[in-house]
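lol ok so funny story. i was supposed to be doing the assay writeup but got distracted and ended up predicting the structure for this chain instead. priorities right. anyway since i did it might as well share w the group, maybe its usefull for someone
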Amino acid sequence: MNKMIILSILTIFVISCAGSNATTMEYRSATTAVRSERDLNKGEKYALKALDMVEHANDARVAYFLAIEIYKPRKNWVEMNRMLDIAMQRNPEQALDRPFRLDDGTVVKTISESVPIYKEQIWMNLFNQTVDLVDAGKNEEALEKINFAKTVLEKIDNFITASLLYIQIEDIKKAKEDLNSVLKIDSNNVRALQIFGDLEFQESNLNGAMTYYKKALKNAKNQNTLNDLNKSLIFIYVELENYDEAITLSEELLSNNLDDPDIFFNVGVIYQRLASKYYDKGFDDYNAINASENIDASAVKSAYKNFKNAYEMTQQALNYFMDSSMVEEDENNSTDVAIKDMRRLRKNLKEIYIPSMEKISTDNNIELN
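and the output, tada:
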């Protein structure tokens, strides 16, 4: 009977120790090794033993000690993060052995108050390492770092950075998965919407791209971002042959960016495409007229109208390309080629095609206007 009572008391004592700030020889040896002897290896050995002991089952101190006093000095971010997670799982409200004060005067007293601060430090180190690896062109290693960073803290920067890296290695599926993760956190995130729009545009899903760009525009505040989004929308309008909308938006963009050669050039491209469109229609009529034994008055009028429109659009394109050239700081071969192309087309229209239609109309008594 007495033996049973003694066993019961011992059981209660062990359980009580496991749920309190009980200490053990192993934990004391670990702290002594690190704090007095400066021996991290010895401290780690004893602390890992203590971590698995029943007396510390609900004690966050051991894991926290391993994280802050052993793995942090070693910059072993993987193990540091793992130990911080264990500390939070075991007893988040446990008081710190060594409370500390932040720069703003806040005193950090508990595990739950301290862990997020150290997690932020881990994350910052990982993010900076990712940037360095990207700058060095080591995208695969950078991905490993940023993917680990995702497990430390849920931050939008993790997923945006990872998505851009996946795009670099042409893994578009994973890039979209990360962008969707961003939108789950913030459905109006401008950067994620913009990147999604770019991917849809590259896949020729123009309507999908337009949807993302327009939503991004509603939430964007940075002027450079607004400009980039409007430029992207202009490209889509041109591809969809919504030239009126493309021109209207381009003129709005130009009014606020008179020193941006790219905008002048892009507006030139719009008029260049319009010129090409009218020229192709006129040229089809022109060939049909020359191939026919009988002159079709409607074909002559159509060809003449399209050539005149092509000439007008060519002149507009040329003006914008020349404006672009004037504000460019460095010589741009693309602009020079575009100017030469428009001058050549303007000359052909003025000296060959339009006069040809006028002569045919005169010879056949066709009223052009």
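Strands lie at 95-101, 107-110. The longest strand covers residues 95-101.
back to the writeup now i swear
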